[in-house]
Amino acid sequence: MTAVTDEDPGNGTVEPAGGREKEGADGGRWDDGLIARRAAAVDSRTAAGARGGDSRTDAGPGSPGADLVGADGDEDDLRPQVDAYGASGGPLPTRLDALRELVGLSRARLDRDTLAEAGRVLDEAAARQRLSSRHTVVAIAGATGSGKSTLFNALAGAPISDTGLRRPTTSQPIACSWTDGAAGLLDRLAIPGRLRRRPHPGPAAFDEAFQGLVLVDLPDHDSAATAHRDQVDRVLALVDAVIWVVDPEKYADAALHERYLRPLAGHAEVTFVVLNQIDRLPGEAADLVLDDLRRLLDEDGMALGEHGEPGATVMSLSALTGDGVPELREMLGRFVQDRTAAPRRLSADVDAAAARLRPVYVAEGRPGLGERAREEFTDRLAEAVGAAAAGQAAEREWRRNAGRACGTPWLRLWRWYESRGLPGSLDRMGQALAPPEEELTARQRVEQAVRIVADDAADGLPAPWAQAVREAAFNGAKGLPEALDELAAKAAAGPAKASGKGSRKDSAKASRTDTGSGTDTSTGTGAASGTASGAVSRTSKEAGVSGLSGSRGLGTGVAPGGRPAKPPRPKWWPAAVLAQVSMTLLQIFGGLWLLGQIVGVLEPGLVTPALIMLAGVVGGPLVEWSCAAAIRGPARRYGQDAERRLREAAAGCGRARVLDPVSAELARYREVRERYVAVTEFSTTGR
Predict the structure, then answer these.
(1) Backbone angles phi and psi of 622, in degrees to 5
(2) Which InterPro entries match (predicted)?
(3) Is residue 666 a contact partner of residue 512, using CB atoms and an 8 Å limit?
(4) How far lies 663's CA from each of 413, 548, 645, 672, in Å?
């Protein structure tokens, strides 16, 4: 048995099939002979000084240098016979670009193993597109004894690959190329030059339909030698198409279906499944086995190319007798001449990579951060910062200042007595009876608010992006309690500064502020809770008795002195104060008048001084009660303004530190989701 090799100039030598070429004086050839023939032609043209024509005529692969000779006998311009992929109008370049952008955007969020397959597809696609687009690499794969080498020889028209009963017969991939220019493709497959063949001169070599075909015979995929199986896996990942050869005994082998056909179901358009050795089946048994093979392929999820639909080609033949081989040659020739096998293979690879990445990109439902979640987060921060309690305290402080300004002297004297903090005063008693305040109450509320909003934003997201959203929220929440304290103090001090009528004396009084050292806690997700160690301000006990005891921990709307900033007085307060002073003077005048009558200094007459004194006694409370009624509306509005300022300060701080990073992470996910949609939009497998 002899076979023409692709290693000697002009393909004019023969060697025993499967044997090694002898080392000559030149040390052996490593290429397919194309480079040497071109170099010789260039030297010949340079010596003759002649310029070749613009057209080229193929004289057949069996004639030395025939592809370099023009129709007029002169040598043609030596244009490369390898046409690399150019700009294509199909969807494949767009999908590859989208996949490349997807991998680039995801490197910071997904681990390397998750993106490894997509990166491999991009690398292999780039490598294949740099090589010949005029060639189609088709591998023949099968199990031990399935007859793949016999089919390989039948298609090549020569006994190129060894056949026999010894197992395994094929130990290394053997390639047969019908045209020149396939050296780069074979180098990519790591097929050495001694295993590269050309079809024997004859009808098979001059078959126009096979021009551009590179046929590769692979070792057994179920070989006992691990190296053989590794070579099969390596080459199958690089070829443009594959012909699976099965026999009536092993067509249902689980190793074939579970390891190859089922994972490669998305590559149906570049797959041929051939039932060989039908000459061993009697009567209609071949049709029955073929129908059962189609059933198994359908269970594997592989689309079958029947009734004009795209899918795998399934047929039966006998490579030994030649029955069905012409039909396979015809279908394979049309497949090669379409020049679409490589793009189809790459597109199927992109589909497979996208299917593997689907769990990390496709979310359940419509994840995101809605307005309701934002409002609830703001409400929780406002509760943690004590906005409502601060508003109530500001309202009470307004009323207290009104009482101080418009109240009777006797009531003001009593309040002064209480403010001294004597052992028997109600202030001291209230401090003694007040329960100890928990320093971490507000901090825990902030942590809970951050945890809830992070869970709401991550709900439905794939695991890596949900983790990224939670980390963004927790990292942004570090230092949030301290920032809320600072903003709350500024918001509380704002009105006093604006009015210019705040009590400097009250502001100068420094009340004691307890500080608690916060510790970092961890949430149920294992991420940092976002609470950096630092001081958490507490409202003083004095402020608590005066109306701030309902607010805990974080900013309570207190001035630097520990009490709420003294609200500005309305314009009518001086008139009320003057009226109260008048009532007090009437009381004093009436009392002195009565005292004078008692001691005999003045003439007796109790009615007039009693009425004057009664008018002062009754008028003082009336003025106070009137002022109390008049200040209800302004006090309520002042308390609402204080609550609103503190709430807005807390919302702004929470938005800048938590919501904005979470929104940025969600926007990043939406961006990669759009890239993923672009990758799968033109899927050829429907995955």
Answers:
(1) -60, -40
(2) GTP-bd (IPR006073), GTPase_Era-like (IPR005662), P-loop_NTPase (IPR027417)
(3) no
(4) 57, 35, 24, 14
